[in-house]
Amino acid sequence: MASKKYLLLAGAVGLLTASTGFAQVQPTGYDALDSSKVSGKRLVQQNNFLNHQSNFPGKPRDMWELGLSGGLHLISGTVPPQPGFGGGISLRKALGHTFSIRAEYIGSIDKGQDYKLRPAIAAAGNPWAATAARNGGMIVPNYRSQNHQLSLDMIASLSNILFYRAEPKINWYVLAGYSIVAADVDVDALDGNGNGYDYSGINFGAKRSDIRKQLNNLRDKKYEQNAPSQGNRISIGRNNDNQLIRHALDLGTGIAFKVSKRFNIGVEEKVTMPFDAYLDGYPGPGGSSKDFYSYTSLRLNFNLGNASKRVQPLWWINPLEYAYSELSNPRHMKLPTPVLPDADGDGVTDQFDREPNTPAGAPVDSHGVAKDTDGDGVPDYKDKQLITPTYCQPVDADGVGKCPDPECCKNKPVEASCATLVLPSVSFKGASTKVGRDQEAILASVASTLKANPSCNVLVTGHAGAKGKKGGVDLSSRRVDSVIDYLADKQGIDRGRFIKQNTPGESGTVDLAPAN
């Protein structure tokens, strides 16, 4: 049973290889047979693969990805945020076709302004004390946060293993990782004279946008004091630039669109969670509400590396492409040499031959059946008339048909062969050269015969008498001319159909005979 399977497999491969229309497609992303992209430490595995001692090729060197990003940065917390801006730079390297690791720096400036009164808090200092004293212990929080974030993220690509396409044009991914965040969170709690703000002139019953507009007109926007925090505010070398240092968890997702093998454009949403309620300078009820950063960015990504030594980043390469191309066009796969029986030697193996006893040398079609070019039922190797029109069929055993006469020729009289024509001789008396009445009757019958056979020419032979007879040739020639003149002038026979000849012989006759 197994031998039959291998036999059929070998036959199918042989037919595909012999087909002139078979397209040989090379891998477009990475050719596993190309050792120039494999590093030295993986060449042993690559050589084992090329020598059929390993099923897996060596992992190729791939390019690094340099990314530049910019976009909307927000702090989601207790205080409603205003649109902020963030920008970053990253470096990403593939660990395999699915996973990669990315180091990234993000810098951002965020601001927020509340629209309602809240109780003042005292945590690691109370910058709102003066404002709270003027408003019955109530404040309207605001903040400005200047942030620096270093991240190390693991990225998983979800769209590069494709079953029905060669190279991915889109890369969708998710990420998770660790960040360390330095945040300088400040508040605008005092006016230009160092006094707390008085909210008595603010109409808190108006629309939110109108309330914020009134508050912005009231404030001097200096952000002169550190915001309240839950501790761990560490000085970073400048007197008024104190920063919170926080560990954080990153989660995110993104999608990138390939423009070329060197460049792609992406959109990404990254959420950073430092598990701190004071990122916006004001905690939620009981401090249970933890703030987080949201960074929605447009990314410009560039692939770095020598294209002659490195492939694209592996997340842009479909690892199934080589396997599919090898199945479609085997270049490395070991295939058994097909040994297929062909009893009649016509080039079509027996399992596909519909006529297994074709005589040697007989032309056959792709099914092993003897060809019958004209379809007359007699195979070409027997057919003595290879192309017999259909109107001449049926044919005899030799493939020869009997064609009916064309309409134009059905009633046409059969022309006699020139060689079979019998023409009379013309006799002259004495030294006469004139065609008389007796000769005219004879020549009239000759003219009738020539008109019925327009393709026949006439040899007119005169006889000069005994050899050396005086005046014999001249007399013979004049008699020949008289005969031709009569037939041409009187009977309308073309002179070009006559051939003159003089020979020894009976001098009283002129002989007429077919010339063709």
TrEMBL record:
<feature type="region of interest" description="Disordered">
    <location>
        <begin position="349"/>
        <end position="378"/>
    </location>
</feature>
<dbReference type="InterPro" id="IPR006665">
    <property type="entry name" value="OmpA-like"/>
</dbReference>
<feature type="signal peptide">
    <location>
        <begin position="1"/>
        <end position="23"/>
    </location>
</feature>
<dbReference type="GO" id="GO:0016020">
    <property type="term" value="C:membrane"/>
</dbReference>
<keyword id="KW-0732">Signal</keyword>
<protein>
    <submittedName>
        <fullName>OmpA family protein</fullName>
    </submittedName>
</protein>
<dbReference type="InterPro" id="IPR028974">
    <property type="entry name" value="TSP_type-3_rpt"/>
</dbReference>
<dbReference type="GO" id="GO:0005509">
    <property type="term" value="F:calcium ion binding"/>
</dbReference>
<keyword id="KW-0472">Membrane</keyword>
<feature type="domain" description="OmpA-like">
    <location>
        <begin position="415"/>
        <end position="516"/>
    </location>
</feature>
<dbReference type="InterPro" id="IPR036737">
    <property type="entry name" value="OmpA-like_sf"/>
</dbReference>
<feature type="compositionally biased region" description="Basic and acidic residues">
    <location>
        <begin position="368"/>
        <end position="378"/>
    </location>
</feature>
<dbReference type="Pfam" id="PF00691">
    <property type="entry name" value="OmpA"/>
</dbReference>
